[in-house]
Give the backbone structure.
Amino acid sequence: MDAHRLARRLRAGLRGWGGVGAMAAVCVLALAFVLLLPRTQSSGAPDSAVQRLAHGTQARADTKCDNGVAPQDQSLSPSGGGGTDVVDKIKAREDRRLIVGVDTNSYRWGYLNPNNTSGALEGFDIDLVHQIAKDLLGDPNAVSFKAIPTNQRVPAIQSGEVDMVVRTMTINCARLKDVAFSAPYFRTGQQVLAPKTSKITGYDGSLAGKKVCSAEGSTALDSLRADKGGKIPASTDISTVVPNQLDCLVKLQLGEVDAVVTDGALAASQAAQDPTVELKGGLFTDEYYGVAMKRGSDDLVRQVNRTLQNYIKNGGWADSYARWLHPTMDQAGKKSTSATPPAAHYK
């Protein structure tokens, strides 16, 4: 039985799933399908009482880099020419497709919906990929998706395995030394996810003696390492580190950890799936997602920034947000701070 037929049977058997456990099972198998197929398979935190932090009071990850400029403000302007020939090489491929690293198991960002009989990936990041492909190659479906774990995002770009990664990837100073980023396309921050019955109240002293999970290569892990013994107690156990952030949620459900630290935007979607967990406390960083590409790919970076500029201007970004993220991030009749696309400032 081929992977597509098996996926359809699996989806049919799981119609009406409601718990994240079922979603996790689907995601694990979906990831296997993507990796077993030829490597080119075509194709938030609520603004509630626990998250109402003013922009000026949020801690900011890498507020300024060595050059004195915020990391999210260091991309190239959409205008301007010359530079590399990366775009020409993409267009000249025999299989004229954009190769993009994505997540396949993050609900509403990049995931395989068990009720989607087409088998196509869905989510906010996936919509953006299709728009980039449309602008670059004239066909929104001229994409080869590759499932890339959190800890393999940078290596996949540097090795040339993918042209870009669109995978809830935070722009920061350390990563700017390894990859190039587009202008920011989403604003969020780190947040704590824990069982509703837990006495954990957020990223604070309530984590004393608690076991916390994060993903390797994530800004959440960077924060935990930097803050241990400071913003969080020295007794906090941060040794549980996994390749993918969804693995943390599974460990939380199994009782192997007490809490998860991840992007609030992702945590909000996970909390919406599983009624036994909730966001604890507010965002404790202020971060921006960007499209990551190989350093020196100036023409591709400018093209992506042109797409982002138009995508926001023509309402495509807002439409995608309304479809995928509004149900989990805008709560109690209030819009999340993430509901407004971040302004672009170029170097």
